[in-house]
Design goal:
The protein has two helices and three strands, in the order E-E-H-E-H. By secondary structure, it is an alpha+beta fold.
Length: 76
């Protein structure tokens, strides 16, 4: 059974490079968590379902924001 279906709106926690200039002293600060809203389509259905499996997707925006805050160490 798939955790989501075509047409669902989900919130995905992302992690990646935030665009800062990387130096040996700030390497850890150049990566950050974010959140994006995604509509599940036929083309991305299985990828979006995999986000639920790894715990990075939520149906509820507030739950996603709470998880994002946890990942950011309570900041924001």
């Amino acid at each position: 059974i798939l955790p989501c279906k075509v047409g669902d709106i989900i919130y995905i926690i992302t992690f990646g490079y935030n665009g800062k200039r990387v130096t040996p002293d700030n390497f850890a600060d150049c990566w950050s968590y974010g959140m994006k809203e995604v509509e599940v389509t036929e083309d991305n259905l299985f990828i979006m379902c995999s986000h639920f499996r790894d715990g990075s997707a939520f149906f509820d925006r507030e739950a996603a924001e709470a998880r994002l805050k946890d990942l950011q160490g309570g900041k924001k």
